[in-house]
């Protein structure tokens, strides 16, 4: 045992402390006897304790032990598995009881499996969840070092194939801290594996150019395997190849047939392959060629006017139906502009609908919508991604007197609607409610085996209540259509509205199919229409089609549940029919901008169009007499879009289609939407840093003086997007971090901003966003280097680490060597600062009590003195004396009498009262003999004759004279009474 002071100079405080103690003795003049001594001692102890706390007094005990932290590699390349835990347990069995051990495991991140402890372990399962796709040994060593307390060493169990951080640099830091690292080497186990190491394609190609794709495969397998090549997720080639152990090279020939950016993926599949994470490699290439237009027509053969105009201008095009829109985002990169010609939203699946928006906003691809009866609001585009990309809103905003509407939605809530169908049905109902006005009436009937009102027909003044009721629909039960339709019809008969409509949605079949004719006849008589929506092949399509026909409504069938909201929106708009404005007029030139020259010779008349509302930042080039946009354009993100609200077939705009200038005018609209790319593209390189990917953007021909500010929108193969703000790094380069990126090809749309242009938010869909220039390119994120079959020499690196820190290279079959090192002498410190402070606090309270409380301190002191004397006598005389004293004390207790004189009013006995009682009871002399009297009285007999020791005396005999106080007693009593009276007069 020993004591150490962290701040030894603080012990000099004892010098002023001595002065303080002397002053305490001098200033305590009003205190006497034991009270004074107690006050001085207590204050001295307080000062001493506080000085000890200030000096940082710490007692310690010295002992010998070993502290070891085991750092275990749990990345995917380690094949040891449970053997690591068994090695650690075997090592722990050889330690001394005082030795302590901790365990840290790591993959990408390090985790503590066991804190530093002397407890043994019979088994050791690893429980921490680590990302085994990477190996970050440096983080494991750093965490292990933090667990050591004043010495110790680390034991690293690994194959040395770390791919994150710098292991040797971390070793240097540990060596500077005096921490030794031993290593247990595990050679990387050879597994049956075939890995695509690289895929190489030319970065830039010309349309029609032949090129070679070079594929490198590393393999530990000898035998046949299947090599597949994909272009934009479409299988392009399949070959059976023969693999040899080691490096294998293959070459496939292809032709660039489509312009744009294309993604390539090479995959190897071998029967004996044990690791699938490294079976694919990725690449991309840009194919340059003339601009190409994709025409999506709602009715086959209806786009003749468009195709003839593009042919005359030698612009290549592709003509498809809505259902043929590409499902992959990368496929849209092959087009410069996309035309939606009278296409209803109900025929565009959810994926392509989102891709159209992304293609315009993020990759600068143009978009044009040409009108007709299935376009804009009539086509169900309200609240869709396409509406966000267009320069017009689908709803009419407060300029027309629309007829009052009443709509009842009859929604199947049977068990078959659970999941996506039910959620999309609710979204469709909510979207329909949003389209309607406050004066309109809406009701919702949900049905399974029987109908029930979700919300009875009400005016839409309380939209929140209606929306909350719709959100609460839950799917369960069977399907019975007739009662639900009958309930909706009967209630609709009581509703007052100019137009009444019912929408029935179901994915099943009703048990009974009779009696519907009577319902539909009533609907026709009461001018109530009903449309039906059949979801999936399990629905009763024949019944629903017949009901819609009989009730003068429309029938929809869909296998794509994502189109349900668009169907409901279309129906809500179709109810009014005021969206189609049929009135011959001549358009008025609005904000024509650069298109003004197109209409210098005049503008043909128009017979009809679909009413829309121009967005705030859109340019209304041609305007109708009612103020509606006929031709509008705007910038949306990186791309441009155009809206023509009349048709292109000639039914509504016959004068336009017959106008000789129309083909050229139409082509100029299309060309305006083409991507506006800069001539100086950027190159992006990607380098993995753990789970994140570090991106470097290199601008061609840029210098630090001319470098612009850029932003980038990055999109993966699934269409997920992320906006990054690269930071300048000098020399025309920028850097950014892409967090947690999965392997694959990523497309990046890079936007340049100068001081005159401000970057708009990519998610601000209703505002135009301007950029100085933009370019679309791509980059590849490979699979983790943890799965590569061309590792570095990890064993040599581990040995170098051990040498760097002065450690040992331990054998994997000799765990007993772990604790085979000399023990270190350590001190176990005891922090008593809190105890000293607590003792100081208690003594401070005692100091206040001694100085402030009016207690019989001299008698208390006498009792303390008596106690100490008895303790000393017991120590000298041994156990027999102690027994004798105890017997005398018990004897004295049995002879004692209860003293009267307890003051009831104040709950305490005064000294004067006690003296009086002693005199009256004949015990006064006994008290004087036992202890000092604080108020001595003059006696005729000298006090020196009294013995100082207390000895029990026989109980005095009472006689007749005992009741009469003596003269001395009277005198003392009189004096005491006067003092008590004075004290009472001094009280308030």
Automatic annotation (TrEMBL):
UniProt feature, compositional bias: Basic and acidic residues: 901-917, 938-971
PROSITE patterns given in the database record: VWFA
SUPFAM superfamilies, per database record: Class I glutamine amidotransferase-like, vWA-like
Region (Disordered): 891-988
Superkingdom to which the source organism belongs: Bacteria
Membrane spanning residue stretches: 6-25, 37-57
Any Pfam family: VWA
InterPro entries in the cross-refs: Class_I_gatase-like, VWF_A, vWFA_dom_sf
Keywords: Membrane, Transmembrane, Transmembrane helix
Domain VWFA: 406-571
Name assigned to this protein: VWFA domain-containing protein
């Amino acid at each position: 045992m020993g004591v150490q002071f962290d701040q030894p100079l603080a012990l000099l405080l004892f010098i002023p402390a001595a002065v303080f103690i002397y002053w305490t003795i001098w200033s305590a003049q009003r205190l006497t006897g034991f009270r004074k001594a107690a006050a001085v001692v207590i204050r001295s102890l307080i000062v001493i304790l506080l000085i000890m706390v200030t000096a940082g007094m710490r007692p310690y005990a010295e002992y010998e032990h070993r502290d070891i932290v085991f750092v275990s590699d749990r990345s995917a390349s380690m094949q040891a598995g449970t053997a690591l835990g068994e090695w650690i347990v075997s090592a722990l069995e050889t330690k001394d009881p005082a030795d302590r051990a901790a365990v840290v495991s790591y993959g990408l991140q390090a985790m503590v499996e066991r804190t530093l402890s002397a407890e043994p372990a019979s088994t050791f399962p690893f429980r921490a969840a680590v990302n085994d796709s990477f190996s970050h040994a440096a983080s494991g060593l750093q965490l292990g070092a933090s667990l050591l307390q004043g010495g110790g060493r680390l034991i690293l169990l690994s194959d040395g194939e770390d791919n994150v951080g710098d292991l040797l640099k971390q070793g240097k830091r540990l060596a500077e801290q005096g921490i030794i690292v031993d290593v247990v080497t595990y050679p990387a186990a050879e597994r049956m594996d075939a890995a695509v190491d690289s895929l190489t394609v030319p970065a830039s190609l010309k349309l029609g150019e032949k090129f070679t794709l070079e594929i490198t495969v590393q393999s530990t397998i000898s035998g046949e395997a299947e090599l597949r090549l994909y272009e934009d997720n479409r299988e392009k080639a399949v070959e059976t190849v023969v693999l040899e152990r080691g490096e294998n090279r293959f070459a496939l020939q292809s032709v660039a047939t489509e312009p744009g950016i294309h993604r390539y993926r090479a995959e190897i599949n071998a029967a004996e392959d044990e690791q699938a994470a490294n079976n694919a490699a990725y690449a991309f290439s840009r194919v340059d060629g003339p601009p190409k237009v994709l025409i999506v027509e709602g009715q086959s053969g209806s786009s003749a006017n468009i195709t003839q105009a593009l042919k005359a201008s030698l612009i290549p095009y592709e003509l498809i139906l809505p259902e043929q829109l590409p499902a992959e985002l990368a496929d849209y990169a092959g087009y410069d502009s996309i035309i939606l010609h009278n296409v209803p939203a109900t025929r565009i699946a959810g994926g392509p609908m989102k891709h159209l928006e992304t293609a315009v906003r993020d990759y600068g691809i143009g978009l044009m919508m040409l009108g007709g009866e299935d376009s804009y609001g009539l086509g169900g585009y309200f609240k869709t991604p396409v509406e966000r990309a267009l320069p017009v809103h689908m709803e009419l905003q407060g300029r027309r007197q629309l007829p009052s509407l009443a709509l009842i939605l009859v929604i199947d809530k049977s068990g078959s609607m659970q999941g996506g169908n039910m959620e999309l049905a609710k979204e469709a109902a909510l979207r329909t409610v949003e389209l309607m006005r406050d004066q309109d009436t809406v009701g919702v009937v949900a049905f399974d085996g029987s109908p029930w009102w979700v919300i009875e027909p009400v005016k839409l003044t309380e939209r929140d209540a209606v929306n909350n009721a719709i959100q609460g629909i839950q799917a369960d039960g069977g399907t019975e259509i007739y009662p639900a339709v009958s309930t909706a019809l009967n209630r609709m008969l009581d509703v007052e509205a100019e137009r009444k409509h019912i929408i029935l949605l179901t994915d099943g079949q009703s048990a009974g199919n009779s009696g519907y004719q009577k319902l539909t006849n009533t609907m026709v008589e009461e001018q109530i229409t009903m449309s039906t929506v059949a979801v999936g092949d399990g629905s009763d399509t024949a019944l629903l089609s017949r009901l819609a026909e009989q009730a003068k409504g429309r029938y929809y069938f869909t296998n794509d549940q994502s189109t349900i909201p668009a169907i409901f929106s279309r129906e809500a708009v179709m109810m009014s029919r005021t969206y189609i404005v049929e009135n011959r007029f001549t358009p008025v030139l609005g904000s024509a901008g650069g298109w003004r020259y197109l209409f210098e010779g005049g503008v043909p008349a128009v017979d009809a169009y679909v009413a829309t509302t121009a967005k705030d930042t859109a340019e209304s080039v041609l305007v109708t007499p009612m103020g509606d946009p006929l031709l509008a354009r705007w910038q949306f993100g990186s791309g441009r879009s155009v809206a023509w609200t009349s048709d292109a077939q000639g039914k509504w705009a016959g004068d336009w289609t017959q106008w000789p200038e129309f083909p050229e005018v139409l082509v100029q609209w299309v060309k305006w939407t083409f991507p506006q790319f800069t001539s100086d593209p950027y190159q992006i390189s990607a380098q993995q840093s753990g789970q994140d990917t570090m991106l470097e953007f290199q601008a061609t021909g840029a210098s630090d003086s001319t470098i612009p500010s850029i932003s980038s929108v990055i999109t993966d193969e699934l269409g997920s997007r992320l906006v990054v703000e690269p930071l300048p790094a000098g020399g025309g380069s920028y850097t950014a971090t892409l967090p947690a990126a999965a392997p694959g090809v990523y497309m990046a749309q890079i936007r340049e901003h100068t001081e005159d242009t401000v970057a708009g938010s990519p998610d601000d869909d209703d505002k135009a966003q301007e950029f100085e220039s933009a370019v679309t390119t791509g980059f590849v994120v490979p699979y983790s280097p943890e799965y590569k079959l061309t590792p570095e020499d990890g064993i040599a690196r581990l040995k170098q680490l051990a040498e760097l820190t002065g450690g040992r290279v331990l054998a994997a079959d000799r765990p007993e060597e772990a604790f085979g090192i000399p023990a270190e002498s350590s001190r176990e410190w005891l922090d008593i600062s809190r105890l000293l402070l607590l003792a100081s606090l208690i003594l401070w309270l005692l100091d206040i009590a001694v100085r402030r409380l009016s207690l019989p301190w001299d008698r208390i002191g006498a009792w303390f003195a008596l106690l100490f004397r008895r303790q000393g006598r017991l120590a000298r005389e041994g156990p027999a004396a102690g027994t004798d004293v105890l017997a005398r004390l018990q004897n004295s207790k049995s002879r004692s009498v209860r003293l009267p004189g307890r003051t009831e009013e104040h709950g305490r006995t005064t000294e004067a009262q006690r003296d009086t009682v002693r005199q009256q009871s004949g015990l006064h002399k006994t008290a004087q003999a036992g202890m000092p009297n604080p108020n001595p009285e003059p006696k005729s007999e000298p006090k020196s004759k009294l013995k100082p020791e207390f000895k029990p005396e026989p109980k005095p005999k009472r006689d007749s004279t005992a009741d009469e106080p003596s003269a001395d007693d009277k005198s003392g009593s009189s004096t005491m009474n006067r003092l008590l009276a004075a004290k009472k007069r001094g009280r308030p």
